[in-house]
Amino acid sequence: MAAIATQLPIRVRLKRMTGLLVGLLLLQALIFYKFRPTEKQRYTRKRDLTLNNTDSRRESEGISFLSFLAQYPVKIISSFYGNSFSVNTSYAYRMSDTPSKVNSSILKIKDSVTRNAEGLNKTCSIQETALARRRMVNLNPPSWRELENKFKDTGLLPGGLWRPKNCNPNVHVAIIIPFRGRDSQLRVFLNNMIPLFQKQNLDYGIFVVDQREGPPFNRAMLMNIGFMESSKLGNYNCFIFHDVDLIAENEFNIYRCAEKPRHMSVLIDKYNYKVLYKDIFGGVTALTREHMQKVNGFSNVYFGWGGEDDDMSKRIRDKNGPGLSSVPGEIGRYKMIKHQHEKSNPINSLRWDLLKSTLNMWKSDGLSSLEGRYSILKLERRPLYTWMYTDVDEKAILWDDAMAKYRKNSWVQYLLTLNHTFITASPSISDGARTIHSIDLFVKSPCIPKCLSFISLCVISICAIILTNL
Ligand code: UD2
Ligand code: MN
């Protein structure tokens, strides 16, 4: 074969090689398609996981194991029922493999900013003459080192806390930034906004609430977490929820709270400085502690892009709500740093349905349903901001009774089957005490498809090398 090939003209050989390569590629595609992993292969079995056995209500109600399984929108890969399994007395257990919570002692760092004696009694006023109606916005991201150097002599305390030395603003502002994977935008934000906060004589702290990889981004829940956690650290009474990509253009846009919850990012360059729709409440908003408590904070059930801001708008505009206000357009001008929508923040297809239920759900969905559904994995007082690395327990949120009516929705099913899970178990009762006979947790394995395509690529490359040497 090789002997014949060497006698052929180079053009013919090249043609053959290309033909062969294309053929091989097609073959690979075919093999890949034909032998794609079955549902079962996509999971790996995990044992020895911690059993999250806190759902005592479900247990005590004795929900039948089988019927409980049937509701689960996850695929049952295999079921095993041990000897003592009995349909009527069986119970379902929920599993969790979330990382253990951080040592709670680090949460206890309190801010301790000193102010000189004279400053304590004097209320701050804003020097209007120092403010500009059009400020220079710099959209180039500096490095972290440059940033830290720039602000090191401004009196910033670890965690990005700052307050004016010579007066007392009487308002403690927590700037809360829902965040995931936008490092360069954060640098642009800090570079432009720290000088503004200081110029406005604010007593402020910046809290970046960073959602760990996993389920789609949950902006509203991160803001609730920021509210709760910053309140543990300082005596804040005004909370400004801030998209990381928005930079204020008018210095008269004062970062304070008003009598009613306030929408601050009214006109944005990306939308040609036009108000997108009435009662919009996304971007930058300011709410006092009382406002937040009155509306039970934001909703926790909006995973992915969209809807969560309108949900808050409805909460505050409800007849018993605190009402909505916004700054005049000319003052609420912002630039949005250019960005694409992340894959990890896909559009929430359930948002319109959820929005129909806001007024029925808000009392049970929000600050009141936050406890135990997230953990702070790390909390760091970084030089320019406080970093809260957060894990959101999407399963716990979506298994809430309030979400029962949406459970069959494809978006919810998708969220529930993400990454994890399935258990097959044979729990039973012996002597009144619960015993679990066998639990297998299947964790979705991302490896097999990835490995296959990698192997496939290797095969093609090896073939190509052999062929070119023919
Ligand atoms: C609009 C709203 C925003 C929010 C969003 C829908 C305005 C000006 N903005 O923004 O408030 O309601 O629609 O959810 O009305 N983020 C990350 N990492 C991610 C994804 C989001 O950090 O992977 C944060 C970041 O702070 C970002 C914000 O969430 O600024 C909003 O997300 P976006 O910028 O992708 O959405 P956008 O611009 O459509
Ligand atoms: Mn944006």
Work out the radius of gyration: 28 Å
CATH topology of the largest domain: Spore Coat Polysaccharide Biosynthesis Protein SpsA, Chain A
The SSE order reads HHEHHHHEHEHEEEEEHHEEHEEHHEEH
Spatial strand order of the main sheet: 9-6-8-4-2-3-12-11
CATH architecture term of the largest domain? Alpha-Beta Complex
Unique ligands:
uridine-diphosphate-N-acetylgalactosamine, manganese (II) ion
Distance between the termini: 9 Å
The dominant shape is: globular
CATH class call of the largest domain: Alpha Beta
Instruction: Calculate the mean pLDDT score and round it.
Output: 78
CATH superfamily of the largest domain: Spore Coat Polysaccharide Biosynthesis Protein SpsA, Chain A
Compute the number of strand runs: 14
Briefly note the structural class of the backbone: alpha/beta
Percent range for helical residues? 25-40%
**Biggest sheet features:** 8 strands, mixed
Keywords: Glycoprotein, Glycosyltransferase, Membrane, Signal-anchor, Transferase, Transmembrane, Transmembrane helix
GO molecular function, one term: galactosyltransferase activity
Membrane topology: Single-pass type II membrane protein
Pathway: Protein modification; protein glycosylation
How do you describe this structure in short?
It is built from 14 helices and 14 strands.
Walk me through the structure.
- This protein is an alpha/beta fold.
- It has three domains: 2-27 and 446-468; 38-120, no CATH class; 137-372 and 380-390, Alpha-Beta Complex (Spore Coat Polysaccharide Biosynthesis Protein SpsA, Chain A), CATH 3.90.550.
- The chain has 14 helices and 14 strands.
- The chain has an eight-stranded mixed beta sheet.
- A hairpin with a 2-residue loop joins strand 13 and strand 14.
- It starts with a helix and ends with a helix.
- It binds uridine-diphosphate-N-acetylgalactosamine and manganese (II) ion.
- Residues 177-182, 217, 219, 243-245, 265, 268, 282-283, 305-306, 308-309, 339, 341-342, 344-345 line the site of uridine-diphosphate-N-acetylgalactosamine.
- Uridine-diphosphate-N-acetylgalactosamine binds at residues 177-182, 217, 219, 243-245, 265, 268, 282-283, 305-306, 308-309, 339, 341-342, 344-345.
